[in-house]
Each structure stands twice: as C-alpha cells, then as structure tokens.
Amino acid sequence: MRNLIGCLSAMMMLLAVVSCVNSKHAKNYNDMVDGNTSSFIKQGLENSETGIKASKLAQTASKNTRVINFAQMVVTDNDGISDDLQKFAIADKITGGDSVSATHLATITDLNNYSGVKFDKAYLTTMITGHQDAIKLFTAAKADNNEDIKKFANKTLPILQAHLDSATAIAASLK
Predict the structure, then answer these.
(1) How far is CA 55 from CA 36, 39, 98, in A?
(2) What distances in angstroms separate CA 36 from CA 14, 40, 85, 137, 143, one per listed residue?
(3) Domains, the chain, ordered by start
(4) Is 48 exposed, middle or buried (0-12, 13-18, 19+ CB in 10 A)?
(5) 98 phi/psi in degrees, rounded to 5
C-alpha cells in the first residue's frame, strides 16, 4: 500500500512538473488577430448595421424618390459588406460588433422625430457623417497586417465613396 501511495505521489509530481514545463497553452483565438483587425471588423459591422437600420427607416418614412432609391442602395450594399465582415469575424473568432451602439441607436431613433423634407435632410446628414467615418475606417484598414482585410478595404472604399457622393448630391438638391 505504501508503495502504491509513493508511486501515485511520484506520478502526480511528474505530471505537475510536465504541466509547468509544457509550452503549449490554451489558444486565445482573439490573440491570433491583432487589435487593429479586430477593431476594424467590429466597427465596420456596427457602422454597416447602423446604415441598414437608418436606411430601412428612410425607405418607409421618406416621400422623396431619390432618398428612397439611395436608401435601397445603402441597404443592398451594406448587406453585402456586413456579410463579408461577418465572414472575417467568424474566421477570426471575433465576437460583437454586429449590433448598434447606444449612440447610433439614439441617432436612428431621433430620425423618427422628423417627417417630409426635414426627415430627408436629417437622414442624409446621418448618412454623410456615417460614410465619412466609414471611409476613414476603411482607409486605415488598407494598412492592416491581414492581406484579406486590405483587399476588402480596397474593394469597399469606392462603394462607400459613391454612397457619400450620392448622399451629398441629394442633400444639396433638397429645399
């Protein structure tokens, strides 16, 4: 019995030593993606979702055909952008970012306070500001360490610029 206890004690000690020496640690998959990539994906998803929610509201609240068509374009394009960002998030084990922040939600909620041309102006101002921010985000992502993120940013920037140009032109035409 003594030998058995001694043997088990020796095995426990050996296991403890091997565990401490072993260089393999549990992987934290979020560490596999640098902070810039993770932040880009999260912010991109949130910005895209905000644009979709605001534009869906514009599709029902606006009476201006140009605004409604612009809103439809934003929803369609942002759905694709969100899908691509979601694929990056899943592949890189990144969670969060696919919801709208309290600040963005308040902006969308405030749009409900307007109607007619006032709504259109408020919506387009939101889109202009949001797309300016998105362009800054995607421009910075062109320098990301992840080649796929760089390609995605380069592919998406012209779409964001087209949205910004359209929103600015429509806003300028409103009286």
Answers:
(1) 28, 24, 16
(2) 42, 6, 14, 10, 10
(3) 33-173 (1.20.1260.10)
(4) buried
(5) -95, 15
pLDDT higher than threshold 80 for residue 6: no
Beta strands in the chain (DSSP E): none
Please identify which residue in the block is written with the tokens 């934003």.
74
Helices (H) and strands (E) in the chain, counts: 6, 0
- Residues written for the chain: 175
Phi first, then psi, for residue 92 (nearest 5°) are: -100, 10
- Compute the mean pLDDT over every residue in the chain, rounded to the nearest whole number: 82
Reply yes or no on whether the pLDDT at 148 is more than 70.
yes
Retrieve residue 145's tokens.
Answer: 């360490």
Q: Which two tokens stand for residue 120?
A: 């259109």
Average pLDDT, integer, range 128-153: 94
Write the CA distances from 2 to 7, 50, 86, integer angstroms: 8, 69, 59
